[in-house]
Design a protein that fits this description.
It comes from Fulvimarina manganoxydans. Pfam families: DUF2934 (PF11154). This is DUF2934 domain-containing protein. The protein is mostly helical. It starts with 6 loop residues before the first helix and ends with a helix. The longest helix is centred in the C-terminal third of the chain and has 17 residues. 61% of the residues lie in helices and 0% in strands. It has a domain of 39 residues. The radius of gyration is 31 Å and the shape is elongated. The chain has 5 helices and no strands.
C-alpha cells in the first residue's frame, strides 16, 4: 500500500500562515489545522477502491476446500513409530 507523507508540506503551509498573520503567539493549532485543510483541498486523496483491487471470493469453493483439508487431516493414518511407542508384541 502506498503511503504519502504530507507532514512536511503541511508544516510549511502552517509556517506561511503564521508569518502572514504577523507571527501571533499561541495559535499554532489553528494554523496547523488550517494548513491541513488547505493541503487536503489542494491534494485530494484517491478513493481506496482505485488503489486496491479486491480478489473475488467464492464462499462455497472455500468451504469445500476447507472440508477436504480437514478430512485429510482427520482420516490420514499416522505412521507407526517404534521410537515413540516402543515395540509391541
Amino acid at each position: 500500500m502506498q503511503f504519502e507523507d504530507n507532514a512536511e508540506a503541511v508544516r510549511r503551509l502552517a509556517y506561511e500562515i503564521w508569518e502572514r498573520e504577523g507571527r501571533p503567539s499561541g495559535r499554532e493549532h489553528e494554523h496547523w489545522a488550517e494548513a491541513n485543510r488547505l493541503y487536503e483541498t489542494q491534494h485530494p486523496r484517491r478513493p481506496m477502491a482505485s488503489l486496491v483491487e479486491l480478489p473475488r471470493w467464492d464462499r462455497r469453493k472455500a468451504e469445500r476446500q476447507e472440508a477436504q483439508s480437514l478430512r485429510r487431516a482427520l482420516y490420514t493414518p499416522e505412521p507407526f513409530s517404534a521410537e515413540l511407542f516402543g515395540r509391541t508384541g
